[in-house]
Design a protein that fits this description.
The chain is mainly α and 64 residues long. The chain is built from 2 helices and 2 strands.
Length: 64
């Protein structure tokens, strides 16, 4: 856990915090999440969806 400086009040804030505990300003992390989230999270969701589709297809082929 690293500390960064809040853009609003100038106090130290954890990089894991969604907002500054002192002034309530959103952190860069929370702004990034609001804009679309991490690319890694998005790609892992896409990958799990692909696995689900493959499993369903295999079950249909085996039972069909």
């Amino acid at each position: 856990m690293a500390l960064v400086t809040c853009a609003e009040c100038g106090r130290k804030v954890s990089t894991l915090a969604h907002s500054c505990p002192h002034c309530g300003a959103p952190t860069a992390y929370s702004v990034k999440q609001a804009e679309g989230g991490d690319e890694e999270e998005r790609s892992s969701r896409d990958y799990s969806g692909l696995i689900t589709k493959l499993v369903i297809t295999l079950v249909v082929l085996v039972l069909g």
